[in-house]
Amino acid sequence: MAALGTLARDLPEHPFVTLVAVAFDRKGRALLLLSRLAEHTSNLEACSHASLLVSETGGGGGVDPLALGRVTLVGSCGRVPDGDLEACRKTFLDLHPEASSYVGFADFGFFRLEPDHVRYVGGFGRMSWVDAKTYADAWR
User: Which residues lie closer than 8 Å to 115 by C-beta, 6 or more apart?
Assistant: First the structure.
């Protein structure tokens, strides 16, 4: 799961953040299955600029979530091209099999976030920007 940030279509100059299911392809691009009825989808169709925050899970036991690793991908997010849909669908459903009950609904479609910038935070005081090429190379 991840937090998807889009630019609010109906609230100019404001971010809009929602919880989404995410999978990653072999290049580290985020894959999202989004409903056309969702606010974030309307926002992306108006402006493709987006960010996605993915955090390490805490495992409970009083672990401070701010001490965990996380990454924010910043880039453009648009519909997955037809030629990539089959691979995208397989990758996403392998991780989120529960989505098979709605993946075929007419209002759902796959989107892919192409990272231009990546912000890594490894916990308190451990953070840096990672260029898009270095990030993509890490997925090889």
Answer: 28, 29, 30, 73, 74, 75, 132, 135, 136
- Phi first, then psi: what are they for 114, rounded to 5°? -95, 105
CA distance 27 to 138: 8
Tokens describing residue 78: 């648009």
- What is the reported pTM? 0.93
Q: Where are the alpha helices (DSSP H) in the chain?
A: 39-46, 85-95, 132-138
The least confident of 6-15, 60-69, 88-97, 99-108 is: 60-69
Radius of gyration of the chain (CA): 15
Tokens describing residue 48 = 């493709």
Looking at this protein, which amino acid is placed at residue 21? A
Would you call 17 helix, strand, or coil by DSSP?
strand
Please tell me the predicted confidence (pLDDT) of residue 47.
Answer: 96
Structure tokens at 67: 């001490």
Q: Give the separation between CA 100 and CA 32, rounded to whole angstroms.
A: 13
Counting every residue written for the chain, the total comes to 140
